[in-house]
Description:
The protein is mainly alpha-helical. The protein is built from 3 helices and no strands. The protein has helices at 10-23, 27-52, 57-65. Helix 1 (10-23) packs across helix 2 (27-52). The longest helix is centred in the middle third of the chain and has 26 residues, at 27-52. The chain is elongated.
Amino acid sequence: xxxxxxxxxxxxxxxxxxxxxxxxxxxxxxxxxxxxxxxxxxxxxxxxxxxxxxxxxxxxxxxxxxxxxxxxxxxxxx
Length: 78
């Protein structure tokens, strides 16, 4: 485990402390979780952009053309 010295504006520190207390966790755990969530979101976006760069629109349209033309199940309407 690493140690990191972090300077936060007072308002962010107060809000982090309040939220950590509400969640029943330490500020360290709150910040670790927040960073992990942000890293995961960035990695997911990169992954999806990489996958999208290999897309073939004509193959995608051929697959869509195979979808039956039926009314949506009740509750699935737009």
